[in-house]
Structures are given as C-alpha cells and as structure tokens.
C-alpha cells in the first residue's frame, strides 16, 4: 500500500511539473492515422517514427527523426505528415520516403483542419503572439492572426472546415471580479470548481476569428481560466469546447456563456479528436473516455492493465468508422471499438 501511494505521489509531482510547461514530454507516444486509414504512425521522446500497419498492428518501418515528438497529423491526401517537436517546430515528413523535407519553426500547439489541408500554430513573439495558418502539404503560410503585445495565447483551435479560429488568452487579474478565500463546504465537484473560477479575481478573453481574412468575429470576457496545459480546442456548431489536462473543461456558446463539464476518466493526460470534431477521446491513468461532442455523454473504457509503473494515455487518433487508437506512456497502442468499448492492446517497439 505504501509503495502504491508513493508511486501515485511521484506521478502527481511529475504532472504538476508538466502543467507549467506546454511541451514537456512524459514518455510514450503520439499517434496519427492517415485519412484512408491504411497507415498509422507513432512517435515520441525517443525520437523514432514508427510506421505501422493498422490492420495487423505491426511495425513496418522505424525512422530516426532526431527530435522529441508531441503531436502528429497527416495532411488531406495522406502524402505528408506533420510532426510537432518540443521546440515548437513543425517537421514536414514525406509519407512515402519518410524523410523530413521541410521545417516551420515557431508553430507550436498545432491544430489541424485536415479536410481543408490547413494547420494553425503559435509563434509566441514577444511583440505580440502570432497564430500562423499553414498549408499541411508544403508548410507555406496561408495567413495569420496577430495579437497585441502582452496578449498571451493559452489555447487555440480551428473548426473542421478551417473557417474559424478560436483563441483563449491567458488569465489576468481583474479587479471587477469577486475574490473568495474559501469555497462553501456544501459545494462539491463541478459546482465547487465553478465557484472557485467565479471567485478567483481573474478573467480570460476568448475570441473567434475568421480564417479567410483574420478579422475578429466575436470576443468575450470569461470567468473560466485554468493554469493547466495540454489543451484541445474544438467546435460544436456555434459552441467552442475547451478540453485540458485538468479535466475541468468548458463549453462556451456564441454569447460567451460558459458551462463546465468533466469527462469520465481522470486527468486528461491524452486528448484526441476526429477530423470532423464529432468524436472526442481523452485518457487518464489506465482509463479513458469516448465522447460524442454532440451531447457530451462520455463512455468510459479501460484497457488491460500492465504490472509495474502506471501507464497513462498520451494521444489519440480516430478512424472514419469511429475506431479509436490511444497511444500510451508504455509504448502501447490501445484500440477502442466504434462506440467506445476497449478492443485490444499492442506493444510498439
């Protein structure tokens, strides 16, 4: 029992440290699936790209990339792969030769609208953060959104059509907001979280931009803000969903009204979304949630357990038929059936 408690505390300390650094790898793999579903790739902090046959779940090729990878995305026709490293550089990899052909520095926190071959990435310029809009086929710049100096982007995301870009700025102290020193004891769970959020003396700014010309569609001041990292931003019609590591997630409607929600797993160590943003996959310590974004009713799944050090999810990829693949810190791929039930696990080596 003591050993288990110490192990849990060690993991917790690691994750608290992770929450202060966007791109700090904790081991394991990121994963991506080609649009046709016939090629899978995985990569992580061992700097190796694994090319996998998803039908047999066998490693076909191993390629030395030389960089720590935290995110992978295929382009629209599956001919190119984008790999984001821990320095915030996007590496364009030819999906036939598996050679790196081009790089785009200062394009971190990649959000992909694969169906229109567009990716957004952050350049944290000290004179004002810049969200870069890049072709997923050749990394050419298709546009940008420039923020004022001092406005720091916490999270960003494109809609599936690549028409809108959502941006959440870092929380700031706001004297107009109430500040409480204690949470009423009768409040539990999300009710307690909401009270703390509304009474922490801070607000954040949420903006939606038109990708075509960079013009601002809307802006709202939110009580919602969180210091944790590992964000995924997706659209639910006119609503925008913010999902992050802490699992204190938010839905923001067109009026700027916030509804907090949690998913069925523990902390969201791993987050993934389907290309059409209709399915959301999240994973914690040996458990995960399969969630249709319409209705936000998560179904919990749990893979077979390994002995030894705890295994956590790192990323997810979703096939067109709803099959999902979760990559883990134990260098495994967990296959989840359409609908959310655990299927099988596969070691990647």
Notes on the structure:
- The chain is mainly β.
- The chain has one domain: Methylamine Dehydrogenase, Chain H.
- It contains two helices and 29 strands.
- The chain has helices spanning 2-18, 189-198, and strands at 29-33, 40-44, 48-53, 58-64, 69-74, 80-85, 90-94, 100-104, 108-113, 118-123, 130-135, 141-146, 153-158, 164-169, 172-173, 202-210, 216-222, 232-236, 239-243, 249-252, 258-261, 270-273, 279-283, 288-292, 297-301, 313-318, 324-328, 332-336, 342-347.
- Strands 13, 14, 15, 16 and 17 form a five-stranded antiparallel β-sheet that branches. Strands 1-2-3-4 form a four-stranded antiparallel β-sheet, with no helix packed on it.
- Strand 24 and strand 25 (297-301) form a beta hairpin.
- The two termini are 32 Å apart.
- The relative contact order is 0.12.
- Residues 1-22 have low confidence and may be disordered.
What would CATH call the architecture?
A: 7 Propeller
Q: Please tell me what the overall shape is.
A: globular
Rounded radius of gyration (Å): 19 Å
Q: What is the typical, i.e. mean, pLDDT?
A: 92
CATH class: Mainly Beta
Strand tally is 29
At the third CATH level, what is the topology name? Methylamine Dehydrogenase, Chain H
Judged by helices, strands and strand pairing, the structural class is: mainly beta
- Separate helix tally: 2
User: Could you state the CATH homologous superfamily?
Assistant: YVTN repeat-like/Quinoprotein amine dehydrogenase
Low-confidence stretches: 1-22
Largest sheet: 5 strands, antiparallel
